[in-house]
Each structure stands twice: as C-alpha cells, then as structure tokens.
Amino acid sequence: MLKDKILNMIAKDSLVYKKPSNLFCFMAKTFGVSEKTIKDEIEALITKGEIFQIKNKFIKIPSSNYVKGLFIGNAKGFGFCQVGTVKGENDIFIPASKTLDAIDGDRVIVKVGYKGNEGSDGEIVAVYKPLETIVGVIEKIGQTYFLVTDNNHIPYKFRIKKSEFKIDEDLRVVARISREKEKFMCNLVEILGKSDDVKAMEKGIIREHELYETFPDDVMAQCDKIGLTVDEKQKKGRVDLTNEEIFTIDGEDAQDFDDAVSIEKIKNGYRLGVHIADVGEYVKSGSPLDEEAFKRGTSVYFPTSVLPMLPEKLSNGICSLSEGVDRLTLSCVMDVDQNGNVIAHKIFESVIRSKARLTYTEANKVLNGEKSEKADKVKKSLLLMKELSLKLQDKKMCDGYLDFEIPEAEFVFNEDGLAIGVQKRERNSAHRLIEDFMVLANEVVAKEFCSKDIPFVYRVHECPRKEKLLKVFDFMKGLGIKLPKIPETITPSFYQGLIKLVDGHDYTETVNKVLLRSMQKAKYTNKNLGHFGLALEYYCHFTSPIRRYPDLTIHRIIKEVLKKKALSSARNDELNSLTYESSMQSSERERNADMAERDVDDLWKAYLMKDHIGEEFEGIITSVTNFGFYVELENTVEGLVKIEELPEDNYLFYEKSLMIKGNSHSFKIGDKIKIIIANSNIFTRKVDFSLKN
Which of 426, 494, 224, 259 is nearest to 358 (CA)? Predict the structure, then answer.
C-alpha cells in the first residue's frame, strides 16, 4: 500500500527537503502517482500521528527520540504521556512548562529527553489529535458563563460561546472545545439535564468516552437500502442448513443473536456446528457502515442501555439469527473426538433457519434435568452438547486453562429506570457450554489461517512478566501459603496450580483477583502470539461480528479466501496493513468501552449506597495502599477505608505483603471485615467506608 511505501521511505532516508512540493514531486515520480495523492496521504499520516514534520524534515513515529501517546493531565499543570496500552508502565513525565497547552485526553507526539531507571521525561512537540468534546456543569461568573469540566485532570474553565441553547447555571452539558489564541473556549452541543440528575450523569460519562446512540445520516441511508429478508440470489453458492436443528442460546434481554449452534453424534465422537451471522455480506469494506463500525470498534453495554456497533436494523434485524427466519451465516463445523480433540473441520458460507431462541435459564433447566417448554423441543441436542462441553472443559483444565471465576455486577432497576439493587451475575452450565463452543471455533479458525500464513487479526494474551509474579508471591507468602519455585518459563499450568492452592479458602476470590492483576491485558494484533489465559497457541475472535470489528475483519478475509483460494503478494501486503490498523483501533476502542462501562457501574453503585449511609455490611479487603484499603461487599460494591479513619496506631504500609500494620492493628488483603457506609458521592463515583467499632 502507498502508505507503507511512504513510511518505509521516511524511516529509511529521514527525508530532508527545501520545501514540501519538492518532496511530493519526488515521491510521486518514485511511486507512480499524482502529487496530490502523495500530499493527501502525508496529511493523513500526520493526522494519525504516524509521521511528524519538524522544520524541513519528516520523522516516522516512533523513532529513537520521538514517540506518540495519550496525554494524562494533572490539575497542577504537569502530566504524563502514556505510551502503549498500559497506564503507568512506560509513561513519560511532562513538566508543566513543556505541555504545549495539551489537556488530558489529547493525543500527542513527545520528544523524549532524560531516560533513567526511574523513568523518562520529555516535551510535547505536537498535538496530533486534540480532545474534541468535554462534559461539565455550567457556572456563571459575573455576566459570563463557563463550563467547569467533570474531568478533574483538566485545570481550566472553558468560556462558553454564544449558543442557540438556553444557557442556565447548574446544567450538565456536552461542549465542543475551541482553542483560540491560546485560550480555551467551547460551544454547547447537548444539554444533558440538571447537574445532580443521576441519568444526566450517566449520559455525561457516555459522552466523555465519545460514545453516541445515533448514527450519521449516510450510515442510516445505506441501512435503508438493505433488505429485511434474505433473497434467493444471496443463497446461491451457500450450503443450505435450513432444515438442520440449529438454535441460539443467549441472555434474557438479548436482541442481537450472532451465534447459533448444532450437534450430532458421529462414529468417533461429535459433529459440532458453530454458525455465525455473515455480517460482511451486508457491511462492505469502505462503505459508510464499515467506516462507522471501524470508528466504534465494539458495542458497549451499560446497565440501562446498549450502544451497538451497527444500527439496529442490522444488529437486531437482518444480521440477527432470529428464530424461524432464513439468515446468512459463516459456519465452522468440527468433528470432535471423545477426548475433546478436533480431528476434522470445515469453514464455509451457509444459510440457516434457527429452530429456537433459548435463554440461558431455559437451556440450563434442561441441562439440569428440569422441564422447560421451549428448550424441551431441542432436549436431545442440549444433552449431547452437555456431554461434549464437559469433555472440552476437562481438556481445557488439562491444558492449563485459567478459570478465575470472578463475578460481574448485575443491577436491578425500577420502572423509572433507577437502580434499586446490585448483585453478582449468575453464570450457569448453559453459559459455560456456549463459551466452550465459541472458544473452540475461535481456536480452529485462528489455527487454519495462521497455518496458511494469511494476514489475520488474532486475540492474544501474552505471558505475565516475572516481576509481576514475584510481587504476587510476596503477597501469597504473607497469607502463609506454601509456594512452588517459579520456573524459567511461566506457563498457564503453573498459574493454574496457584489457583488450585487457594481453592476453597475465604481468600480465594481475593487471591484470584491479585493473580489476574499480575497478568497482561488481552489485545488484538495481526501477529499470532497465543492466548495465555486460555492456554491456547492459536486464538481469534470469529464469533461476534455484530458487536466486534475484529470479527468482521476476519470474516471478510475468510470469505475472500473461500472464493479466491490463493491471494496475490500485493493483496497480502494490503491485508497486512488492514489487519494491523483493525487490531490497533479495535484494541483502543475496547479499552475505551471497558472504562466507560466501569465508570457507569461505579456511578450506579454510588447512587445505590446513598440510601445505605450508616448501615453495617461485611466485606473483604481487596486492595491495600499507603493511604488506606479497599473493601468489597458481597454485592460487588467497593469502598475505601482511609488510613486516618483507622483506630489510632503507628501504621506502616508493607508493599510486598500488601498490608497496613501498626503496633496493635493490622489489615491485609483477604481479611474479612465489618464496615459502616460513611459516604457515597455520585459526583466522584466514590464510596467511603469506616470500620465498625
């Protein structure tokens, strides 16, 4: 691709020129394209922060002295540049005098200065992608209205320009940032509600993460041209599975069904079918629908709503594997032996007609020998699936699969849409069964395309770093756990052994969380690096193209290979670039979605706890710091007990053993403790506890 050629030339030659037109002319002749094409491509690369122009020279980013990243601001003016995906790991300190007026959330290019054992510092030389919108509350000073941002990392108030909106104090709003003559101003774009309205706060969090319910007009116009049913032309060349017993199992509230399953007994074991919505048939590469899906990267799930990656007409309509209607699918049919090994498989385009839309609860009843009117229709298949699922689980555990069993929060809302309760989400046998089958299909697809050396998007989870594991060992020793020697190569089986060591103890869940925190985050990449947590050499995300862009990307590649069989060298190069961009964007959007979901959960938990101030609860210490410790209650709410609220003593923080210890009192991770709800602040989304006397 032209972009790669330009980057390679810049990286190799560090091009110096008298004026840009000279360079554009040289590149145009070299690559056989117009000067305008070169100019547009270079401007796009500058916008993405992939190259940086300094005086009469272009520099490819990253280089030996320049990196790009996310600016993390501080109310005192200084900040850090987060390089990579993990906050705090490779951060570069930026003094207040060298921020170039960047604000928290800006994407920046940094010239790295001092490098030492304690970290690096540098100066911002460009803001290549400025933060566009902010959320906050209107404040009036004299006759002028300002926006006080909810983001306490931004040390400025933004003067509000004249607006068509009726401006009033104490409103929570969304505004577009305007940077004029070194001054920060803003234009109102949305009124969310009163500053203390919890629903307005929820919407504010969603907007802070640049998430929206509505889709652009050109996207909706493209949707309107897509048919509501599958026509005969679309079925041509596909395997007809409409008479097979294929069905879906999903949550009670699910509207988008992107995976269906089937099974039959064969001589050597089982023939398992995983049938996935063929979203690529409707969302063509480069179309407005595709560009918007790429921008969103993923569907985002909140307690009260879902922000889908694709418009509802597709996600809940023609792409959804609804009961009793024909739908286009990509099928992965696998022959699995009695030991859970895949001995043969086939991936192909198909047409299915789901025979049942089951919920996890309905399917689980049949799996447990109970009656369920709807699930009983496919009872034979369900029981056969249970047989296979148990064999797959046995194999996974033998291979070193890590099952931390850390529950998610599930909220209960009243008719007014306000939270009235929160509890741990149930995970039953039907959940595990579907998870087992999806993981198997993802592995099989990844292995096939990796073995063919075709550019692909993989879901990878790299091996934990040894220094992180050493910290976990220090903590576990403090609990009196007898530990094995750390091997030269850390394997999933070794981690699995650590999980088994604490199984059945009061501190099981706490230790599992500490072990989980010691591991690297899963991400997308176009290099197959394996999946540590699943103990798999090959893994991808194939099974959810309605809600994840990586799945859609590889569906297109699969369909292209199924039709063309062999890809040209030039096409391979294009796919390498495409899978790299898809991986980077999808990983970033996934992190953004995770943060948004966590922030909204924290808001509703703080809202719930407001009505319980002064009440007593029992919880477990889950984290210890030099300023106090965090306690998690049975309902998943977590709060801080500040060190100054503890009984008077000479406390010291022991980082290795994650303990606060005084002469007469000690508090460490895993301790059961009784607390009182001291405060709950919906503005900061924080809950404070105090010890019960």
Answer: 259
